[in-house]
Amino acid sequence: MTTNAATRTKGEWLEGWDPENEQTWDKALAWRTLWITTFSLTMCFVAWFLPSAIVPKLNPIGYNFSHSQLYWLASIPGLAAGLLRIVWMVLPPIMGTRKMVTLTSLLLIAPILGWGVRVQSPTAPYWELLTLAFLSGIGGGAFSGFMPSTSYFFPKRMQGTALGLQAGIGNFGVSLVQLLTPWLIGFGMVGFLGGSQMLTFPGKPDQEVWYQNAAFVWIPLLLIIAFFSWTFLKSVPMTTNIKQQFDIFNNQDTWWMTLLYIMTFGTFSGLSAQFGLLMANLYGIGNTAIVSGEGAAAKVLIEGYVPPDVVKYVFLGPLVGAGARVVFSPLTDRMGGAIWSLISGIGLVGAIAYTIPSLTPDATSAATLHAGFNQFLYGMLAIFLFSGIGNASTFKQMPMIFERRQAGGVIGWTAAVAAFGPFLFGVGLTIMTPTVFYAIGIVWAIMCIVVTWMRYARPGAPKPS
Question: What is the pTM of this model?
Answer without folding.
Answer: 0.80
